[in-house]
Design goal:
Elements: E1 3-8, E2 14-15, E3 21-22, H1 36-49, E4 56-61, H2 85-98
Antiparallel strand pairs: 1-4, 2-3
């Protein structure tokens, strides 16, 4: 297998080919290079646009389709959607108080 380099920020998002930060679950979209110096140049270029970023180089292998193999531990946590019953209760109370 071939070793490649990808870039990851402090929020565990990966740099995509279109210079956007993505969660990495679709490895086809990720910026990648086989050259460490090229990856470092990209890191400095991206970091110069936003100095608050903390970017690191991640070394990984390619799978049989030529996409980076991303370990699940490297991926950001998925957002949790929680239904808030208190909001529903408040709306219900408002509706009942508006009735004559």
């Amino acid at each position: 297998m071939t070793t490649i380099y990808i870039l990851q920020n402090q929020d565990q998002f990966f740099l995509a080919k279109d210079q956007q930060w993505v969660d990495g679950r679709d490895a086809r979209l990720l910026y990648r290079t086989t050259y460490k110096d090229e990856a470092l140049n990209q890191l400095f270029e991206v970091n110069s646009k936003d100095v608050n970023l903390r970017i690191k180089l991640v070394e990984c292998e390619l799978n049989e389709k030529g996409n980076p193999v991303i370990d699940d531990d490297w991926l950001p946590a998925l957002p949790v959607i929680v239904e808030c019953e208190a909001i529903v209760e408040c709306e219900t109370e408002l509706e009942s108080s508006e009735s004559p």
